[in-house]
Amino acid sequence: MNFSLLMILLTPFFGGLLAYAASALHKSVRNIFFLIFMLIPFVELPVYLNKTVDNFYYLTILGQNLSLGINPLSSMMLLLFTLIFFLSSIFMMFEFNDRGEEGDLAVLELSFLEGAVFGVLLARDILTFFIFFELMAVLVFFLVGKGYKEAHTAQMKYITWALIGANSMLAAIVLLLFKAGNIGYTEIAGYLSTAPTSIVIVTFILFAIGFLIEASIMPFHVWTPITYAEAPDSVSVVLASVVKKVGLYLFALFAFSLFGLNLFSKLLPQVLNNSLVMYILQWIGALTIIIGTFIAIVQEDAKKILAWSSVAQSGYILLGLSLGTPLGVAGGLLHIINHSIFKGLLFFVVGGVIYRTGTKNLPELGGLIKKMPVSFISMLLGIIAVAGIPPLNGFNSKYLIYEALIQKKEPILLTIALLGGTGSFMYVYRLIHSIFLGQLHEEHESVKEVPLLMQIPMIVLSLLALLFGVLPGIPMYFVSKAEAFLGFDPIKYNLTGFPEQPGLHAVNVSVISITFVAGLVVAGLLFYLLPRARKVHQLDNYYAGEVLTKDDKYNYSFGFYSFFDDIIAPFNKWSVESVYESFVGFIKTAGDYLRRVYTGNLETYVSFGVILLVIFSLIYILGGILW
To answer: pTM of the full predicted structure?
Structure first.
C-alpha cells in the first residue's frame, strides 16, 4: 500500500470534516482549515506526475478487488482539478460568507466532491469508479440546491439525467461482471478483446451514455444550461471545469484503453477510414459545437451564455478525441486543459459581477469597465481564449483539432468546427459588451472591484491562459505523456509551438504573440500621440439630436442578436429540450391523476380493486378465447 497516494484521496474528506467541525469555533477557523486542506493535494501530487502506480491500495469484497492506481492521464487531471478546486474554495468563502449553516454544509460538500472526483480518477476497476462517480452526482445535487431561485428545478433536472446515466453504466457493469467474472480495468480489457461483438457494442454504448451525460454532449445536455446558471457561482466553475471533464476523461480512458480502436476496427464496418462508432461520435461532437454555439448567441443570462458555450466546447473535445489519431487526441486532451482554465476564468468573472451588482441579466448590466478593471481584463483574456485567437491558450488546442480534421480529409466537419469558432466570437463579444462596455446603470455608480482575494482566482487563471497560449510546450508535456499512456505516438512539440510533421503545419505561437504585441504597441502609440478626445460624463452627451437623461439608453443590450432568434425559432419545437419538457408535462399530468387514487377512503380503494380484478379477469378470459 502506498500511504502517500492514499492520503491524496483521503485529504479532501478529512479536510472537509475538520473544516465543518471548526465552524463551531469560528467561521475564520473553518475557512483556514478549508483552504489548507484544499491546497495540500496540490503539494503532494507533483511527486507522482507522469508515473504509473497500479493497485497502490485494494480492498477485497465478495471475491472482487476494489483497487486504486495512478497513471499519466489521471495525474494530469488530478493536478488540473486540484487547482480549480482550490481557486473555487477561495471564491466560495465570499459567496457563502453570510449564509450560516448553509455555508458550513457547502464547505463540507465541496471538499467531499473533490474527494469523489479524486476517487474516479484513481479507480482501477469499474465498480470503484462507479461508486465515486455516484457520490460525485449526489454532492453536485446538494451543492446546486444552494444556488439561485430556480435551483430546485435545476436539481431535479440534473438528478434525473444523472440517474439515467447511472442506470446505463450499472447495466454495463453487471453485464461485464457476469461475462468477464472480474471488475479490474486490465482484466476487462483482456475479456473485451475476445468478447462477442454484441457484448462489446452494448457495453460501450451503455458506458458512453453515462460519460456523455456528465460531459453534456448533445442530446444528453438538457440538464446543463439551467444547472450551470442556477448553481452557486463557485459551484458553476467546478461543474464546467471539473465535473464535465470527468465525463470526458472516462470516455477517453474507456474508448482507447479498455475497448481500443483496434477492437472497434475489427468488429465494426469502416466509414471514411473510421470505425462506425467513432464516425458517429465525430458527428455528435460537430453537432454539439454548432447547436451549442447558436443557442449561446441568443441568451440574455450571462451564466447561460457560458453554459451553452461550455456545451459547444465539449463538442470540440469529443470531435478531437473521436478522430482517433495522435493529432486529434492531442488536440482533444489539450482542449480539456485549456477549456478548464478559460471557462473557469469566465465563470469567476461573471460570479464577481453578480457578487457586486446582484444580477446576471445582461440588459441590467453595462459600463462596468472602469468600476471593475481587473474583472474586465480577465474577461477580455477569457473571451479571446474561447474564440480560439492567439496568443491565448484556446488557439493551440483548436489549431490541433482543425489540423487533425484536415489530415483526416473531413471538409464538412472542419467547416462546422470553423463556424463554431466564428459563432463563439459573436457570443463572447456580446458578453463583454453587455457587462463592461456601453452605458453604466445609475444603480451601479457605487460598484467597485471585487475584494483582492476574489481577484486571485481570476488573475491566476488569466496568467495560465496567457502562459499556456504563448508557451504551449508546458501543457503539451503532460498531454504527450497522457497520449502515450492511451497507446498513441505523441506528436512533436517544442516550448513555443509545433514543428513541421506529417499532418501538421509548423506554428510558432511566440512569433504570433510578438506580432500581436507589436500591433498593440502601435495602436497605443497612435492613441496617445494623436489629439485626445474630451472626456465627458455619459449623460453630458446627446443621441440622435436629443439630450440624454438617466432613463435613456444609448446602447442596446436586450435582443442583441435578435435576428438569430428568428433563425433558430423553427428548430426549437423539435429540440431535445422541448421533447424533454413535453415528457415531464405528461408525467406530471399522469401523476396528478394517479394522486387522486389516494383518497384515504376504504370504499374507494375497494372499488378500484374490484375494477382492476374485472379488467384482469376479462383479459384472462379473452386471452383464452383468442389464443
So the answer is: 0.90
